[in-house]
User: Which sequence fits this backbone?
């Protein structure tokens, strides 16, 4: 009676969300302090005080028109501020006309993919990856091509990308700092990727867009550089949200920045603005457009996240788990001690540890630990991890 | 290089939005007070003071977690309040489980259509109608079937609907009070429609859903009844937004209410919640979920709109224009004195009157006047309308 494809997919729905719901169930059963929920990238922190002050400023003002329609692309002054910020940060040359304000990164990805893809065109994703990319690509009528990153390092396997490019390749999605691995793709690998793309474009007479999903770009530790995709790739589209950097995931606010170097970028932006409307977003929420424009230089305190990363990383590696030390985002991607990561998560749940199987990111044999959680919970969880390690004879 | 279908449609993009942009251009040229912009349903009023107070209450509070992720369906307490409100208003029997909070009515329609439609299934719309329904249906893989309403009265032509139902009919979209006509569909016509639907469902062995787009349901004059579609139609899905009723169009907040009488409604809701996420909305903006939940009984002052309707309606009919007196919404749908409504709008623009051609709503020969505008502008516009009428020898 309903959409068959959607109904059939319901059982297989997001492992992350399933774990989130399971967490709620276990908390009811055992109490809040007995459940160690590492399932969802739902920042535990409140937004920075600058953001809350800015919100108060607008709401307590007598300013008119804060809640009205504007151009579907967003408020012109907000778009200009985003362009100025990107120019300053990356030494590029954007104007307000290259920016579309959107309802978060998931909205930006859906709008971008629909604006680019003709039926049957291919979009490459680098595993492990946030699997809903595949659903977005499907909604836009495209086909997903999965290419694995390098074993253990999770850096881009540029040779594998080159081999996977066909005359139907329209775009490649990259996500750095990466969910689920926390890895930042190196400048070297991105520049190599750019060379491969330009070579294959010339060879096949096609255009390949680099869609960079960048919600974690401000969550970086130890001063590591996140190379600017807008400055490296000519046909680049950078999509950002303030869900993680300003801890505003519920408010659905972000932007698309389409490089001024894209040929006929005006048409692309027109298509995006029209789609922003007709896909049902209409515009990014108006009040929060104003708020984020005041706070482009602000980010949540990464020192807190770093502290959490270090507590967990140090403990897990000490008790025998294998894990790359992440440079950004708020995830650890830990090797499961058995091949079957889903079974391993089942065992972890016995200790009230809620982890997400790597299979849910096309990274089987690993589990994702989202450490954007209360530090008290993290400290209480260490004993449970130790018991888990012992069950597998690790320590 | 981009999505061909979208790029080709760009030239034909929304006449309403084109007029909105034209208005901005003319205002720059002639000054704000010399341009009479009746193009966009962008409420001129600010949100009711109760809404602004509620917003201040949350923003100035120390309440934690206002901006975080919640279940993709929305906050449970907000969904419960919406269900309670609908039950009280319409004497029906809904729970929070039948409500999905969404980013406005356009989002609700996209989610609903995608949840219902299999490729090639048909959705009926009653002309004149908000033409983007056709785009939403297309995005969901369906085909749009247009059925005209009754000549002059714009009430539902139930016989025409019956004739247009096929074994591929999946849904019918109704919109009352109507954009662009301001007409409220009578209880009698809705009950007849229900009989026809039940008869054809039995005859053809199909399920036909009634999708009711209800953003204007609180904007009604002279105490006229808007019959509850949830109480009339068994397989009804009511979609509402607070863009018009609370003057919050920029904030993108609304809900889907799927009737508890729909067989297997749990599966439908699961599909909607999943699609809310994967289509890129993720969830309705969190802060405004809380705000609207406090203000379900509140609406903008309809007396102001009524006053504006009366000034314009009385003047236009006095100077010779023909127009049905609308019972709701904030639109007049006026018969053009010539067959070509687009040419007529061109002539009106000479007098700095920005009207939208009825053709943009599949209602050729008419123009839409959105009177959700400043009352001073409306009063200043009367002389321009008189000149326009004289040019056509009406008065």
Assistant:
């Amino acid at each position: 009676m309903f959409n068959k494809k959607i109904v059939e997919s319901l059982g297989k729905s997001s492992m992350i969300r399933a774990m989130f719901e399971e967490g709620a169930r276990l908390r009811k059963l055992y109490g809040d302090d007995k459940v160690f929920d590492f399932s969802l990238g739902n920042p535990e922190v409140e937004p920075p005080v600058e953001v809350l002050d800015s919100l108060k400023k607008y709401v307590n003002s007598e300013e008119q028109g804060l809640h009205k329609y504007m151009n579907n692309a967003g408020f012109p002054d907000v778009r200009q501020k985003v362009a100025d910020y990107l120019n300053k940060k990356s030494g590029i040359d954007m104007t307000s006309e290259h920016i579309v304000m959107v309802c978060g990164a998931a909205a930006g990805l859906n709008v971008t993919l629909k604006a680019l893809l003709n039926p049957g065109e291919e979009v490459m994703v680098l595993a492990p990856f946030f699997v809903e990319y595949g659903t977005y690509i499907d909604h836009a009528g495209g086909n997903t091509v999965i290419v694995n990153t390098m074993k253990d390092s999770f850096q881009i396997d540029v040779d594998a990308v080159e081999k996977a490019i066909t005359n139907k390749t329209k775009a490649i999605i990259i996500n750095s700092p990466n969910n689920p691995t926390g890895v930042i793709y190196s400048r070297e690998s991105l520049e190599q990727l750019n060379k491969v793309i330009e070579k294959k474009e010339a060879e096949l007479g096609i255009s390949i867009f680099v869609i960079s999903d960048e919600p974690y770009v401000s969550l970086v530790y130890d001063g590591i550089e996140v190379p600017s995709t807008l400055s490296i790739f000519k046909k680049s589209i950078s999509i950002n949200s303030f869900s993680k950097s300003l801890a505003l995931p519920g408010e659905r606010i972000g932007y698309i920045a389409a490089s001024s170097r894209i040929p006929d970028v005006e048409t692309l932006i027109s298509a995006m603005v029209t789609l922003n409307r007709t896909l049902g977003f209409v515009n990014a929420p108006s009040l929060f457009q104003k708020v984020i424009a005041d706070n482009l230089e602000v980010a949540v305190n990464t020192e807190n996240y770093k502290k959490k990363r270090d507590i967990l990383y140090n403990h897990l590696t000490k008790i025998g788990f294998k894990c790359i030390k992440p440079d950004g985002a708020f995830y650890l991607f830990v090797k499961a001690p058995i091949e079957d990561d889903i079974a391993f998560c089942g065992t972890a749940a016995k200790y009230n540890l809620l982890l997400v199987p790597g299979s849910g990111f096309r990274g089987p044999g690993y589990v994702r630990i989202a450490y954007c959680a209360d530090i008290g919970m993290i400290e209480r969880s260490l004993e449970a991890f130790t018991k888990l390690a012992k069950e597998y004879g690790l320590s």
